[in-house]
From TrEMBL:
Bias kind Basic and acidic residues: ranges: 256-265
Pfam families: DNA_ligase_A_C (PF04679), DNA_ligase_A_M (PF01068), DNA_ligase_A_N (PF04675)
Name by which UniProt lists this protein: DNA ligase
Origin species: Edaphobacter modestus
KW DNA damage (keyword) present: yes
């Protein structure tokens, strides 16, 4: 019977170990030991999941539903500490787990027998608990039995942020080492089945190669890197004749299947070589150009023959957002009958202007994002479509390793098959709704096409991109995307194979760390937000560095929602100002960046304004202080703020 203290002790050791190799060896050793002690149990899998910082496997839809507020309350209850003491401990560490360790340190550290199975049982009960009180009771039960070090890591695990400098990829490597399997095989199984715990079992049972793609868990999204000018994009994609020989070699190496270095090689000119001879001086740009849509990125799963009506839509945060888009669910459930098996699409959900035949501004779609109940009024006011630009799974085959050129061909064929049926009515007849709320409408004259294929074509020149950019802007889209024609799909990577060109002033994606009450009509409302970017130590300590404060740009309704959320997620109440859980991401625009010691990042923004709330973007992907430095350096006059009034 594996004990949670082994997870806690290992985690504590890993937090203090900088060497990746040593970390991997220690995790591998621990997994092997747990497995050997009970080869038939799920303990080794649970152990791997805990070290990766996830209470449940990714494919498992269950959620603990335990946020900072609930966990803080439980901690106060069990430790008997005062709110003042908790606030002080939290301020010292910036981490609830570490604060919990301090508050419980007077507790008898005796010999805990809390097992991994018992923790799993409590987590399972939390996921189905109907009330907060029941959930809090379960957390208290765990914390009461835990030693201080166990409590520290239980809290971190429940928050979902271990801060021990261990990513899932390192645990995958450790599983491979522990079971003498290949890393590529472990990674592949995890990608297909999204179950780290099950991959441990497979690795020891030697059945990794039997892993099969399961639909209905999100794969990572491939992301784009920014370029400032069409010229820069062309330079990146251009094929130079002199590298032709190298390119052939590179291509061969790639087919051997080691995917660890694919971030750079798929985007490099070597990887975009075509067989045709290139005349000296001729510019060959093997890249597709598409509009950059300003909607919500989404991955859509459908067509599983065993559950033909099931459709799932995942956001970039990997959240299941299907409920918010019932018209897409209906349309793709209908279209599944025309599909020839499971499909995974990558695309953008857009609000659609039916009259003009183009996307509605993001702000209009934004009003619908996050809504769980979508009334007919919303359906009619903001009709949505799914603008598809990539195909990840089809014909029983994962297409990630096919070049974009080939994926695009297959996408076009699939869309042609489905487009006629992927329809749903603008509004539904409420009386005909099925109990689950889904209505499978027959396509008829009133229904609208919900599946659209993003136009895509090979680009020819800088001027061609310039023109396309202007056309895209004229269609009210954000800019253009350029994608290497031979590039593979890299889930979760921001490589150089996809480039985005949007030439506005730079914006930053930041997370709100604090909020202040407003004045006048905003008195009593938390309307002024202090926000941060990721610091250099973010990976290991979760370091966030404040960079500015803004209060303009949002609608009253958005501010009201944020304010209520901030009240609920307050970490420290300093009267007019509150520090809040760093979870809400904003995109902010500004006129320029100054060096300043007003904020911990060493920078301040001049005339900051909030462009939008970006709940679609996880905190792990917000901008970094290096990016701030980069924008700062790119300014012609690099302003320095002379006044020095430190705020954090
Ligand atoms: P950003 O959010 O600034 O990192 O930009 C990347 C985003 O561009 C993605 O998450 C997509 O939502 C969006 N996007 C819009 N159009 C496309 C497209 N044609 N291909 C890929 N991504 C796109």
């Amino acid at each position: 019977m594996a004990l949670f203290r082994d997870v806690a002790n290992l985690a504590e050791m890993l937090a203090g170990e900088a060497s990746r190799l040593k970390k991997r060896a220690a995790i591998a050793e621990a997994i092997r030991t747990v497995h050997e002690a009970a080869p038939e149990s799920e303990d080794a899998g649970r152990f791997a999941l805990s070290i990766a910082g996830t209470p449940f496997a990714e494919a498992d839809p269950r959620k603990l539903n335990a946020g900072g507020a609930l966990l803080s309350k439980a901690l106060l209850e069990v430790s008997g500490a005062t709110q003042v003491a908790l606030t002080a401990a939290y301020r010292k560490h910036g981490d609830l787990g570490a604060a919990g360790f301090d508050l419980l340190s007077t507790k008898d550290a005796g010999d805990s027998r809390l097992s991994l199975a018992e923790v799993a049982e409590a987590f399972a009960a939390m996921a189905v608990a109907r009330t907060t009180a029941v959930r809090a009771g379960l957390v208290e039960g765990l914390l009461r039995r835990a030693t201080p070090i166990e409590a520290k890591y239980l809290l971190k695990l429940m928050i979902g942020d271990m801060r021990i400098g261990v990513k899932q990829s390192l645990v995958e490597e450790a599983i491979a080492a522990a079971s003498s399997s290949s890393v590529a095989e472990v990674r592949h199984a995890v990608m297909l089945e999204a179950d780290l715990g099950f991959a441990v079992r497979r690795a020891f049972e030697r059945t990794l190669s039997e892993a099969r793609m399961r639909l209905f868990h999100p794969l990572g999204f491939m992301l784009a890197s920014p370029v400032e000018t069409p010229e820069e994009a062309v330079e990146r994609f251009e094929q130079k004749p002199e590298i032709a020989a190298v390119a052939k070699k590179a291509k061969k190496k790639k087919t051997r299947g080691d995917d660890t270095d694919k971030e750079t090689d798929a985007a490099s000119p070597e990887a975009t070589l075509s067989e045709s001879p290139i005349a000296p001086g001729q510019r060959i740009i093997a890249a597709f150009l598409e509009d950059k849509y300003d909607g919500m990125r989404a991955q859509l799963h459908c067509g599983d023959p065993s559950q033909p009506d099931r459709v799932a839509i995942y956001s970039r945060n990997k959240e299941d957002v299907t409920e918010s888009y019932p018209e897409l669910e209906e349309a793709f459930a209908t279209a599944s009958s025309a599909a020839t098996g499971p499909l995974i699409f990558d695309g953008e959900i857009l609000g659609w202007d039916l009259k003009e035949g183009r996307a509605l501004p993001f702000a209009v779609l934004g009003q619908r994002i996050g809504r769980k109940r979508v009334s007919n009024a919303w359906r009619e006011q903001v009709p949505v479509v799914f603008m598809v630009f990539d195909l990840i799974f089809a014909d029983g085959e994962l297409l990630l390793n096919l070049p974009l050129r080939e994926r695009r061909n297959r996408l076009e064929a699939v869309v042609e098959r489905l487009v006629e049926t992927a329809r749903s009515p603008l509004a539904v007849d409420e009386r005909r709704k099925l109990p689950q709320g889904v209505m499978f409408a027959e396509p008829d004259g009133d229904s609208i096409e919900r599946l659209m294929l993003a136009p895509s074509r090979l680009v020819e020149s800088v001027e061609d991109i310039e023109r396309a950019y202007a056309d895209a802007r004229a269609r009210a889209n954000e800019g253009v995307m350029l994608k290497a024609a031979e590039s593979v799909y890299q889930p979760g990577r921001r490589g150089l194979a996809w480039l985005k060109l949007k030439r506005e002033l730079a914006t930053l994606d930041v997370v709100v760390t604090g909020a202040e009450f407003g004045h006048g009509k905003r008195a009593g409302i938390l309307s002024d937000y202090t926000f941060a970017v990721r610091g250099p130590d973010y990976e290991t300590t979760g370091e966030l560095l404040n960079v500015g404060k803004a209060y303009s740009g949002l609608t009253d309704a958005e501010i009201a929602e944020l304010s209520a959320w901030m009240m609920d997620h307050t970490l420290e109440d300093r009267g007019f100002f509150r520090t809040v859980e760093p979870l809400r991401v904003l995109e902010v625009a500004f006129n320029n960046i100054m060096r300043s010691d007003r904020h911990a990042s060493g920078f301040a923004l001049r005339f900051p304004r909030i462009v939008r709330i970006r709940d679609d973007k996880p905190v792990t992907e917000i901008d970094t202080v290096e990016r701030v430095e980069e924008i700062y350096q790119s300014q012609v006059d690099k302003p320095v703020e002379v006044e020095t009034a430190s705020e954090d």
